[in-house]
Amino acid sequence: MKLYSAKQIYKADQISIKKEEITSDELMERAALQLFNWIHLRMQGAPVKIHLFCGIGNNGGDGIALARHLLDHGYNISVYVINYSEKRSKDFLINLERLKTRKCWPSFISSDDELPEIGKDDIIVDGIFGIGLNRTPDDWVAKIIQHLNKSEAFILSIDIPSGLFTDQGPENLEAIIKSNFVLSFQTPKLVFFLPQTGSFIEQWEVLDIGLDPEYLMATETDYELIGNNEALSVYKPREKYAHKGTYGHTLIIGGSYGKMGAVCLAANAALHAGSGLVTAYVPKIGYSILQTSLPEVMVLTDSNEDLLENIEFDFEPTVVGIGVGMGTNNKTVTGFTEFLNKNKKPLVLDADALNILSKNKSLLKKLPENTILTPHPKELERLIGTWKDDFEKLDKVKKFTKKFKCIVVIKGAHTIVVQIDKGYVNTTGNPGMATAGSGDVLTGIITGLRAQGYTALDAAIFGVYLHGKAGDIAVESTGYQSLVASSLIESIGSAYLDLFKIPEHPVVEESKGQ
Ligand SMILES: NC(=O)C1=CN([C@@H]2O[C@H](COP(=O)(O)OP(=O)(O)OC[C@H]3O[C@@H](n4cnc5c(N)ncnc54)[C@H](O)[C@@H]3O)[C@@H](O)[C@H]2O)[C@@H](O)CC1
Ligand SMILES: Nc1ncnc2c1ncn2[C@@H]1O[C@H](COP(=O)(O)OP(=O)(O)O)[C@@H](O)[C@H]1O
Ligand SMILES: [K+]
Predict the structure, then answer these.
(1) How far is ligand 3, taken at its centre, from the CA of residue 388, in Å?
(2) Percentage above 90 pLDDT, the chain
(3) Do the Cβ atoms of 454 and 448 come closer than 8 Å?
(4) Of the bound ligands, which one is closest to the alpha carbon of residue 62?
(5) ipTM for the complex?
């Protein structure tokens, strides 16, 4: 699913109005009706107090139009206009007039006015700012936003939580609505999935207001949301006459004294992802550990007992996943450098391989094209330096992938796979996965997919999706706290099967509640 920018949404808006020969007010009415139907279906006329806070632009217009429908159906509403500008939009004014003809007079709130009392069992509709926000709200508006956030009432935001920019990082975190639910028109917004801003949204759902499908289809976006449909579209089915050689030979290189578990996890995950053969290359100390715990995995050992020093092997793997549990001892740095000098195979780099690269940036030039790097936030910072906000981080990563012709998997709650100008935002996974070794499992899955002939980009995107889905399935039986990396591996099979599940309800684009 594409994630459109504000500019693209405005364009879709104009094209739809022109093509369908409708007015912008009719489009707003469509949006308001969708909002109303969503609420009415759930509330069934319940007399709960609904406070509608509206701005003076089209987001406010949506709120005012929604207020009319709620009023017509007997809901218990209060309407407030946050009067932050004299430049009221045309459709806001049209809808304000319509509301007034029903003898409903909103309270206009300006800078020094007292704020209304809100009960914690009330509902707030947030229509203060939409995608038109172009500067941080004034302090007095930020105070209103804080007042709403503190009320403990359920906050339903129209399109986007007010105060959140659509395509740039936040400036004042105190001036953003914390939404319990966002009804977002046509497309969720990228900021719903970024670590700095995602926490302002508990749940979201898309309302289809029928913007021109032709324009939406033809428009390329900088970011895409990866759900079941996208994952299924890259999935490679197995062939009847296939043999284990068809599905590649994964080599996992890593481990050091006390950190052999990381290699076990990655190698086992590569097997469960479907790699035909898996070999682990470890220090001598790891030999019995691996042979005992993973009978399906072949083991090669380094000349060094406790760490990797001379990475040498005499077979041709399809792909190499390197770095897990490897450590950054000087001898390992030398061994790793020599390995990179010789290596021609596709690579997946994680953990200490990334840490070594960060300290020896000249090695980056030695990576084969389309190497996949899987940093967690700290590893990423070591690689690209600090960032002021998530947008700067994404820009820096894009530049990095362009410069070194690689793919970066920015791990997090919503992992984003970045290649040159494009980012793929994952939708699976849960906080139970914030546990030791879950990154090692991801490395194994991605490497195992690459072995089976997935392109580097598909392996990264699909691997991240499967990993998160395995976590979502595992957590159903373990709970968040008890989810451990091994249970992710056990659920990879179910994650594959889940790709083909027919949804019980017609598919609506929405976040999953937790
Ligand atoms: N195509 C669509 O998706 C549709 C969008 N609609 C609604 O229209 C919204 C966008 O409306 P607008 O473009 O009118 O913008 P907003 O309603 O988001 O903001 C209103 C205006 O306030 C001004 N402004 C921005 N930041 C400010 C600040 N910090 N302090 C004071 N003033 C500020 C801007 O001039 C802006 O146009 C969407 O979010 C959505 O709710 C709907 O009406 C239906 C159609
Ligand atoms: N809150 C979360 N929601 C979803 N996925 C998460 C969350 N926290 C961590 N993960 C996932 O778990 C993995 C953790 O990787 P990493 O930090 O490298 O762990 P480790 O080094 O212990 O193996 C990543 O794939 C990340 O996306
Ligand atoms: K809003």
Answers:
(1) 25
(2) 95
(3) no
(4) 1
(5) 0.93
